[in-house]
Amino acid sequence: MSLADKLNFDAKGLIPALICAEDNTPLTLCYMNRQAIGKTLQTGKVHVFRRSRGRVMLKGETSGHTQEVKEIYLDCENNSLLIKVHQKVAACHLGYFSCYFRRYNPETDTLEITEPRIFDPDEVYGPNH
Amino acid sequence: MSLADKLNFDAKGLIPALICAEDNTPLTLCYMNRQAIGKTLQTGKVHVFRRSRGRVMLKGETSGHTQEVKEIYLDCENNSLLIKVHQKVAACHLGYFSCYFRRYNPETDTLEITEPRIFDPDEVYGPNH
Predict the structure, then answer these.
(1) ipTM of this predicted structure
(2) If you measure CA to CA, which chain A residue comes closest to B105?
(3) CA gap B39, B78 in Å, rounded
(4) What pLDDT does residue B1 have?
(5) Which residue among A14, A27, A48, A84 is least crowded, i.e. fewest CB within 10 A of its CB?
(6) Which residues does chain A have within 8 Å of residue B6's beta carbon, measured at their own beta carbons?
(7) Do B20 and A2 touch (CB under 8 A)?
(8) What is the full DSSP assignment across chain B?
(9) Is A24–B29 a contact, with Cβ atoms under 8 angstroms apart?
(10) pLDDT one-digit tens code per residue, B59-102
(11) At A36, is the secondary structure helix, strand, or coil?
(12) What is the DSSP string of A67-128?
């Protein structure tokens, strides 16, 4: 038995995982398969199944902005995970601490940026990322 | 234009939405389609596409435990939403404030309940729910 044995994966073998900071700040939503969960437990760092690349990757593999696992929770139906992490630098590849840095304003139908940018993606990923 | 026009829905016309309390406590992960987003904006209360029933429902329709929308955020790739809400009573149909009330203990491979139960599901949904 292991954590993965308790979970309901979807038809593609994936389960969504909410990643939050230790103070509950929502950082990102990622997808994990059995292998990603195994590597996350083994290393203590979040590993995700990157759907665009079709493979398991260490979150922060390129940037060094890794996520150290603090706590793992299951939802009431075993359909998703909540992982609380210590986030190095920032979670978002656009340079913000959280991927949820744009708030929707329904009155104007516009998006408002609610966080300062912490790093320059060109410097971290190179100009052609 | 509207919020839904800014989003990437999956092949089934759905997008995942993290629902958090005003203090960022993660409550649940739900799925929305265009109609659910429209009704959520129109009423100010979270509506979800309940996959098990194949239709849009007011979250808390049966229990009365509705979620009043405070803020809506988009992730950096328009693939998910974060909705901050004022939660009436509790979000979880098992009687807990959050659906993430079970923490995984990797040393013992067991789940530990981390919250008090707020209501009795039998009383709210009836004994045969």
Answers:
(1) 0.96
(2) A72
(3) 19
(4) 65
(5) A14
(6) 104, 111
(7) no
(8) --GGGGS---TTS-EEEEEEETT--EEEEEEE-HHHHHHHHHHSB-EEEETTTTEEEETTTTT---EEEEEEEE-TTSS-EEEEEEESS-S-TTS-SSS--EEEETTTTEEEE-S---S-HHHHH-TT-
(9) no
(10) 999 999 999 999 999 999 999 999 999 999 999 999 999 999 99
(11) helix
(12) EEEEEEEE-TTSS-EEEEEEESS-S-TTS-SSS--EEEETTTTEEEE-S---S-HHHHH-TT
Q: How long, in residues, is chain A?
A: 129
Q: Which two tokens stand for residue A115?
A: 């966080």
Query: Which chain B residue has the Cα nearest residue A23?
Result: B24
| Contact present, A95 and A121 (Cβ < 8 Å) | yes
Instruction: Give exposure, A82-104, as e/b (b: 16+ Cβ within 10 Å).
Output: bbbbebeebbbbebbbbbbbbbb
Q: Which of A24, A77, A114 sits opposite B25 (nearest CB)?
A: A24
Q: pLDDT tens digit string along B39-49?
A: 999 999 999 99
